[in-house]
Write a structure and sequence with these properties.
alpha/beta, single chain, 30% helix, globular, 23 strands, nine-stranded mixed sheet, FAD/NAD(P)-binding domain, 2 domains, disordered C terminus, 13 helices, five-stranded parallel sheet
Length: 493
C-alpha cells in the first residue's frame, strides 16, 4: 500500500497553492494532490456559463508568490484558469496531481498514527487504498454533484430549456431567445449582461434586491505602477493596497452600515435613476450582511438602460409551458429559464471522515481557527473569505500547515489534535460564520462546526484578525496536543 507524508484533496485554487507552499517550505515531505475531476482549476474549470468571471480583483485572488500580469484585474474564467495552469506548470505542481482520483473515505488510526484513504478511480470505477500522515482538504465548500434549485411549481412542465449555471451545456445557443434568469446573486448578475448581447431579451427575476457596485475591470493604480516598476513589485504594492482598502470598507459596513448603504445606493442611482433603484436595487439588509456584487464597467447597468435586459422583483406563482407566472399576476414569457439559485454546500468535499472507527459529525465539533476541528488529528481544511478574496485566507492556511508539519518534525512527534481545555467547557455554540445572512450559507450552517467566544475557537473571517490568530500565535497554545513518537527520525535541526 502506497504511503505519502501529505495528501492534498483538490486541485483548484486552494490545492495548487498548497502544492506550492508544501514544496517550498516542507521539501523533505512527500506530497500527492488527489483530484476527482479530469483537470485542475476547480471552480474555474467547472463553471462554463456565459461571462463567467471573478468578482474579486486578481491582485488578491491571485497568489502572493505568482504575480497576475494580465491587464484586467477583474478577470474572466478562462483567463483565471490559464493563470492556474501556468502556476502549476511553472512550479512543478502539475507533477503532484493525480486526476480522476476521488477520495471517498478517510479513516484515522491513533495506533498507526496515519490516515487510510479510500480512493475511487473515476475512469475505471475501481477503488484503492493509500495512507498518509497528514490530510489537507482543499476541496472547496460546495458540491460538484450539482447546484441548488429550490422547489418551483410547474418547472418540470416548462416547454423550453432549463439550465443551472453549474451544468451549462457547452454547445448551448441562446441567440434570439427570451431568457429569464432566476436569482440576483453574483452569478445572475454576470449571466444577464453576457446573454443580453445576443438574446432577444433577458429578464433578471429576483425575490429581493442585492447591493451592486460598479468598478472598472482595469486597476488604474496598477496600470500606472507597471509603467515605472517591475511587474512583481507593482503587483505586491497593488495587492497590499487592495487588501487594506477591502478590509477598511468591510469595517465601515460594520461600523457605519447606514452611511455605507446610502453611498452604495447613490452610486447606483447615477446609472439607473431613483425609481429603478428604489424598486429593484434597495436591499432590506445591511451592506455585507450578504455578499456585495461587483459590476465591471457597469455592464449590467448598461444592459438595463439599453433595453436588452430588465429586472423584475416578485415571487413565482408557477412556471407555465411558455414562461413564468408571478404572484403579482404578471406573466414573463421565456424560451430559456436559468436557475441561478445558488450552490449546494458541503463540508470537506463529501469525504466521510472517521477517527478510530467513529464517523465524525462535524456539526458536533468546534472549529479551531476556522481551519481544523476539535478531536480530529492531522487534518486541516482550506476555506477562504466570504467578504474578500478566497486566496488571501488560503495562503494563510497553507502557511499554518507548513509550520505545523515542520513543528511535528522538529519535536519528533507524529500527530497534532485540537482539544478543548477545561476552561472551554462553558463556551456558547455560535455559528461557524457569524453576521452573514445569505441563504446558501444559512442552509449549510447547521451541518458545520461551531465556534466559541474565545481564541482559538474562532473563525473571524477578517484578514488582520486571522493574521493575529493564525500567523502570529504560537503553535504550543495549550489547545494543540502533540503526540506520537517517530521510531527513526533525525534529530531536530
Amino acid at each position: 500500500m502506497e504511503h505519502v507524508d501529505v495528501v492534498v484533496v483538490g486541485a483548484g485554487i486552494s490545492g495548487i497553492g498548497a502544492g506550492y507552499h508544501l514544496q517550498q517550505d516542507c521539501p523533505d515531505r512527500s506530497v500527492v494532490i488527489l483530484e476527482g475531476r479530469g483537470d485542475l482549476g476547480g471552480t474555474w474549470d467547472l463553471f462554463r456559463y456565459p461571462g463567467v468571471r471573478s468578482d474579486s480583483d486578481m491582485h488578491t485572488l491571485g497568489y502572493s508568490f505568482k504575480p497576475w500580469t494580465a491587464e484586467k484585474s477583474i478577470a474572466d474564467g478562462p483567463s483565471i484558469l490559464a493563470y492556474l495552469r501556468e502556476t502549476a506548470a511553472e512550479y512543478g505542481i502539475d507533477r503532484l496531481i493525480r486526476y480522476h482520483r476521488l477520495v471517498e473515505r478517510a479513516a484515522w488510526s491513533t495506533d498507526e498514527q496515519r490516515w487510510t484513504l479510500t480512493v475511487r478511480d473515476v475512469e475505471t470505477d475501481t477503488t484503492a487504498t493509500m495512507t498518509c500522515g497528514f490530510l489537507f482538504m482543499c476541496a472547496g465548500y460546495y458540491s460538484y454533484r450539482g447546484g441548488y434549485t429550490p422547489e418551483i411549481t410547474g418547472l418540470d412542465g416548462f416547454g423550453g430549456d432549463v439550465i443551472h449555471p453549474q451544468a451549462w451545456p457547452d454547445d448551448f445557443d441562446h441567440a434570439g431567445k427570451r431568457v429569464v434568469v432566476i436569482g440576483s446573486g453574483a452569478t445572475a448578475m454576470t449571466i444577464v449582461p453576457a446573454m443580453a448581447d445576443t438574446a432577444a431579451h433577458v429578464t433578471m427575476l429576483q425575490r429581493s434586491p442585492t447591493y451592486v457596485v460598479s468598478r472598472p475591470d482595469v486597476d488604474p493604480v496598477d496600470r500606472a505602477l507597471r509603467k515605472v516598476l517591475p511587474a512583481h513589485l507593482a503587483y505586491k504594492l497593488v495587492r497590499k493596497k487592495n487588501i487594506t482598502m477591502g478590509q477598511w470598507f468591510y469595517g465601515q459596513t460594520r461600523k457605519n452600515p447606514d452611511k455605507v448603504k446610502q453611498k452604495l445606493l447613490d452610486e447606483t442611482r447615477k446609472h439607473l435613476g431613483d425609481a429603478t433603484v428604489e424598486e429593484h436595487f434597495t436591499p432590506t439588509y445591511g451592506p455585507w450582511d450578504q455578499r456585495l456584487c461587483l459590476i465591471p464597467n457597469g455592464d449590467l447597468f448598461n444592459a438595463i438602460t439599453g433595453g436588452s435586459a430588465s429586472v423584475v422583483t416578485d415571487t413565482i406563482d408557477t412556471v407555465t409551458p411558455d414562461g413564468i407566472r408571478l404572484d403579482s399576476g404578471e406573466h414573463l414569457e421565456a424560451d430559456v429559464i436559468v436557475t441561478a439559485t445558488g450552490l449546494q454546500l458541503v463540508s470537506l468535499g463529501h469525504v466521510e471522515i472517521e477517527v478510530d472507527g467513529e464517523t465524525v459529525d462535524f456539526s458536533d465539533t468546534w472549529t479551531y481557527k476556522g481551519l481544523a476541528y476539535s478531536d480530529v488529528p492531522n487534518l486541516v481544511s482550506s476555506f477562504g473569505y466570504i467578504n474578500a478574496s478566497w486566496t488571501l485566507r488560503a495562503d494563510i492556511t497553507c502557511g499554518f500547515v507548513t509550520r505545523l508539519l515542520n513543528h511535528l518534525r522538529d519535536t519528533q512527534t507524529t500527530s497534532v489534535t485540537p482539544r478543548l481545555r477545561p476552561s472551554d467547557a462553558d463556551m456558547p455554540r455560535r455559528p461557524w460564520i457569524d453576521d452573514f445572512s445569505a441563504g446558501y450559507m444559512q442552509r449549510m450552517m447547521p451541518m458545520l462546526p461551531k465556534q466559541g467566544d474565545r481564541a482559538p475557537w474562532l473563525n473571524p473571517q477578517r484578514y488582520e484578525a486571522d493574521r493575529t490568530l493564525i500567523v502570529e500565535a504560537p503553535l504550543d497554545d495549550g489547545v494543540l496536543v502533540f503526540a506520537g513518537a517517530r521510531a527513526s527520525s533525525p534529530a531536530p535541526a
